[in-house]
Structure formats: C-alpha cells, structure tokens
Amino acid sequence: QSYCHRLQHDMYFLTSTSRLNEQVVDKIVLQLNRVYPQILTNEEAEKFRNPKASLHTRLSDLLKHLQKKGERHCQEFYRALQINAEQLFNDLPSRKILKTPDPTEIDTGKEQYMLNDRGPVFFLACFSVAAGLALVWYCCNSDTKVIGRARRILGFSPIIIGRHVRNICMLYLEDISRD
C-alpha cells in the first residue's frame, strides 16, 4: 500500500477523540516544518498549530493537506508519528494489516524455534554423556583391537580433520602399538 492510501485508511483512527493530544500534534507539525526536505511551510505550520481551531479540525486538515501533496509528504508524516507517538503508530489499522502474516507463507522463525526448543544446556548434556561413554569405552578396553579400530576411524578423517593432523594421530597410534 502507498503511504497516501494508508493515511486515508488511518484517518478516522487518528482523528478520533483522545488518540492524539495537542502537544503530540504540535510536535508532529513542527517536525514536518523543520525536517529536510521541508514538508510544511512556515505559514502552513502556523495554520495547523492554531490554538483557536479545534484539535480535530486541525488534524483532519493536516491529513487532507498531506494527502494532496503526495507520497513523500505522507511518508514523512508516518515517520514523525513514529518518533513522537510510537505506541499510537504501532496501533494504527494499516500497521496491523501489514503485520498479519500470509497464511500460505512458512514462518521460518517458528520453524527454527520448533527444531531448537531444547536449548544449549540439553546439547551440552548430550555431548558430555557421549564424550564420557567414549572415554570409558576407550579406557576400559585394553585390547589392541581398540587401536586398530581407532586407526580405521582415522583413515576416514580427511573429511573431518586435516591431513596433517591425521598423520600426527596415525604416528601416535603406531608408537602406542609398538609399546
């Protein structure tokens, strides 16, 4: 949606009573007057900050004026609204439409959470159990077959570790088997 269409959609919500107070509207008008590029001229800013007119009328006139000016002006209004009234900006009807997910779209964040819901403590516990079992199996079995098994496993190690490390491990196993 374009910002002008969004502003038209949000106009009733913004102009309804007690949504925006006078101070926030004045801050928005001043920001639109002082920001680069200047969205409102000094005369326009004074017109929309006139305390003699009701807040509802000034705000309605401001929103209609911005819609006539074009897309960039409406975009700057939304930026000023976000800076000066973030909670109201997040509650806008057009923002809620943008936030609703497409039912056919896959939510990768939820999918990722579902796959990793156990956390790092669970991973560390499983890894510790596996490393402990491997250490017990290696230390308790005094057969020379263990070295032969380890040698077979290290034979496939270029996939996992570098050749240089594999050669050092193989030399170490040969030295242990000679003793």
From TrEMBL:
One of its GO terms (biological process) is regulation of apoptotic process. It is found in: Endoplasmic reticulum membrane; Mitochondrion membrane. Its main location: endoplasmic reticulum. CDD domains: CARD_BinCARD_like. SUPFAM superfamilies: DEATH domain. It is a single-pass membrane protein. PANTHER family: CASPASE RECRUITMENT DOMAIN-CONTAINING PROTEIN 19 (PTHR34765). Associates with BCL10 by CARD-CARD interaction. This is Caspase recruitment domain-containing protein 19. It comes from Formicarius rufipectus.
